[in-house]
Please model this.
Amino acid sequence: MSPQAGPAHPAQQPIIDTHIGFRESGNDQYDFITRQTKDRESREEFSFPAEYMFKGVPRDLPTDDPVAVTLRAMDRNGIAMGMVSVATESGRRAVQRHPDRFVPQGSAVDPNDIMGTLWRMQAEFEEFGIRSVSSFAAGTFPQVALNAAQMYPIYAKCVELDIPIFACAGIPGPRVRAAVQHVELIDDVMFDFPDLVFVTRHGCEPWQDLAVKLMIKWPNLYYSTSAFAPKHYPRAIVDYANTRGAHKIIYAGYFPAGLSLERIVDELPQVPFRAEVWPQFLHENARRVLKLPGERAQ
Model:
């Protein structure tokens, strides 16, 4: 089955990218991962910990003005808005100077510092109006599972602030243990926090079929396509979007960490989504989940 052309074709849709960032100088942003890896490639050779998985990583980007570089890439590829972390100086500058283009996401949560995380969430909500927070369970050190007790105050704070959490689920790319991100753990979280909006990141593989079952079960559970080139979107996810799950699948890229926007946009038209799925996937679902104001003109 090929994608359907017409008014809903991806090339004619605004795009909200729920996973975009900036190329900063140096590699110290990955120290939190490499301090727990043990293989030589991860510790000594890779420019980022999941390098072995990606081809055509945009490496030679200038770092003198990371915000301008990302904005130009967005403009070239039809990205109307991008969600960025305010944990970095570039992220803070982006959301302050270009509020019509960048959506503020809070710093990654750290369940090994519960009170510090709760204070930071509140402070970032008040200062930047963060629309979400993120979680990388396999990257915590020591690792903390998605359904661990340390995460529960963080989930409660998300409900209090009425913001979603975007959480990595499935086998992580970096060579660290994976059990803390098993998709089945999300069932516990949604049972205990039915009002929490939970969006998975980074594919949920090899448990993508389970992810679909859980999305059918839990109204506030969503899936985003971060870190996957469109030609590698799991078939189970495409089929779910084309049947009963069009309102549950949210576009996310991975620029500049692992994918170029050019590659993503070039491959998008080959994804066999039905015509009516495209606007929901590319911008409507993100706008609803992140509670964004009216549509930005192209």
User: Anything to note?
Assistant: The first strand starts at residue 15 and ends at 17. The radius of gyration is 18 Å. The chain is about 35% helix and 10% strand. Strands lie at 15-17, 79-85, 102-108, 132-135, 165-168, 198-201, 221-224, 249-250.
